[in-house]
Amino acid sequence: MIFRAKLAQGRLIRRYKRFLADVQLPDGVVTAACPNTGSMMGCCEPGSRVWLSESDRARRKYRHTWEIVEVGEVMVGINTTLPNALVAEAVASGALAELAGYAGMRREVSFGEERSRIDLLLEHPERPPCYVEVKNVTAAVSGRVALFPDSVSERGRKHLRELMRLKRAGLRPVQLYCVQRGDVGEVRPADAIDVEYGRTLREAIAAGVEVMAYRAKVTPSEIRLEERIPVVCP
After folding, report:
1. Is the pTM of this model over 0.90?
2. CA 35 to chain centre
3. What is the Cβ-side half-sphere exposure of residue 108, based on CA atoms within 13 angstroms?
4. Which of 5, 112, 118, 142 is deepest in the core (most CB within 10 A)?
């Protein structure tokens, strides 16, 4: 995914009210939309270098959107509205071998007993449909380990329950973690943050739900899924 316009570089002053961030740009301070509802653990330290996109829509209240933060020496994509598009783009280009061979793709399709929406539905007249749930991963700890979730996620647990029901129905459910940082080598459930999510993930794996993670290369000009990394549930 290539950014349509050059991103503005600045320094984070603060993130607040979950959806807002004050950023010092070269020509002054702006309030940017923060498209991330999680805790953003390790990704919202004041003084961090950040990159913002800018909208040309006149009626938009906050013209800037926070896209990337620099953590140590790595750029991390924090915009949780992008992973679905990143995965869809990679599927369409054939970059995700595990999800290749489908004739069509639909997004945000209603399904399930708990009134959910699947992020991607891959279809083929001669194969069972493939339901792909995408989760954005930004948190990481020492040892090149990425963690999900970064806050308690009842929604994430609900989606895993729905995927297990799909598996029992003879369909193909996939949980795909989109890791928007290049300095990690595996994804693990953040048991210390949400023990129930970790328990449900392990239950889903045991039930036959396919679980995979892809790491993205993040730059101020482009974000692109590049490499599959393991999901480890010790």
Report:
1. yes
2. 11
3. 4
4. 118
Model confidence at 209: pLDDT above 90: yes
Enter the CATH code of domain 83-229.
3.40.1350.60
**Backbone φ and ψ of 199, nearest 5°:** -65, -45
Strand 64-71 relative to strand 74-77, pairing: antiparallel
Distance of CA 225 to the CA centre of its chain: 11
The two structure tokens encoding residue 159: 């989606």
CATH of 8-72, one of 1.20.120.1460, 2.40.50.580, 2.60.40.10, 2.40.50.140: 2.40.50.580
Token pair 């004739």 is found at: 103
Structure tokens at 127: 């194969």
Backbone angles phi, psi at 86, to 5 degrees: -60, -45
Average pLDDT over residues 46-59: 91
